[in-house]
Structures are given as structure tokens and as C-alpha cells.
Amino acid sequence: MKQRLIITGIWFIGLFCCATAAASYAFVHDDNGVLFLHWDESTRVLKAVFAVYATYLGGILVFWFLKPFTARKNNQTLERVRFSIAWLGAVIINLAFLGWLLVGYWYSGAQLANIMEASNVVIWLSFLVAPANIYYFGLRSAS
After folding, report:
1. Which residues contact 36 (CB under 8 A, 6 or more apart)?
2. pTM of the predicted model, to two decimals?
3. Average pLDDT of every residue of the chain
4. Within the chain, which residues score under 50 in pLDDT?
5. Cβ pair 108, 30 in contact under 8 A
6. For residue 71, what are the contacts with CB-CB under 8 A and spacing of at least 6?
7. Residues sharing a CB contact under 8 Å with residue 103, sequence separation 6 or more, in sequence order
8. What is the pLDDT of residue 78?
9. Distance (Å, rounded) from C-alpha 66 to C-alpha 68?
10. Between vectors from CA 103 to CA 101 and to CA 108, what angle results, nearest 5°?
11. Which of 11, 13, 137, 139 has the fewest beta carbons under 10 Å from its own?
12. Which residues lie closer than 8 Å to 14 by C-beta, 6 or more apart?
């Protein structure tokens, strides 16, 4: 239970950080004093962030209450491996998404399209972390 809370917390912290990064573009000025993204563009980025996290967190929260898979036996080694894969995948995906969203801060030529690519990349990377999350969160204890 504690491990599932940790991984769920990583996803919620990632959502908060990415949403903050996306919203911050509405307040950042470039070298010429022009807003990096206007509020309507920033809201497009926010919608993309929430759409990405809705898919991940939706699945995780559903599997908190629905357990479609039965574990074979209580094996601590397999449990640690499953947790490690789910934890590592969550951290890598969240850091990659946050890093790509922040491209406007470290590359002055970044445009809205560059920032919006972050959601596309993370969606394509979901094949790495989604199965691990489904398997990790979707197991009910062996009786």
C-alpha cells in the first residue's frame, strides 16, 4: 500500500510541476520584454498537460479500486522488481515531460509548437510506463 502511495504521489507531483511550468509561461518575458506565451497559448499548453496526466492518473486511480489481475504468489523479489520498474518509469516520464515543457527557459528560440511537442513525446513514451503501472496497480493480493 505504501509503495502504491509513493508512485501515485510521484504522478501527482509531476502533474503539479508540469502544470506550474506551463502556467508560468504566461508571466515570463523574453529579452525584448514580450511575453513568451500569451495566456491563450499558455492555456493550450495547460490543456495538453492535463490531457496527458488524465490518461496516466485515470488508469492509476481506477486500479486503486479495481483489481483485474490476481498475483500468483507473494514473492518479495517480484514485488520489488515491479515497484522498481513502476517507480523508475514514473520518474523518467515525469522528468522528461517537465524538461521538455521547460525548453522555453533554456532555449530562447523555442516556440509554442516546441512546447506542445512535449505532450506528443510523452504520449508516445507511454508504452514504456503504462504497462508497468497497469500491472503494478492492477494486481490484487493472492489469497
Report:
1. 25, 28, 29, 30, 104
2. 0.82
3. 81
4. 143
5. yes
6. 139, 140, 141, 142
7. 110, 114, 115, 118
8. 77
9. 6
10. 145
11. 13
12. 53, 90, 93, 94, 97, 98
Tracing cell 503501472 back to the chain, one arrives at 133
Q: Name the nearest CA neighbour of 115 among 59, 13, 41, 17.
A: 41
CB 52 within 8 A of CB 123: yes
What pLDDT is stored for residue 143 in this prediction? 47
Q: Are 51 and 119 in contact (CB under 8 A)?
A: yes
Burial of residue 125 (number of CB atoms within 10 Å: 0-12, 13-18, 19+): middle
Contact 3, 88 (CB under 8 A): no
Q: What is the pLDDT of residue 41?
A: 85
Identify whether the C-beta of residue 24 lies closer than 8 Å to the C-beta of residue 49.
no
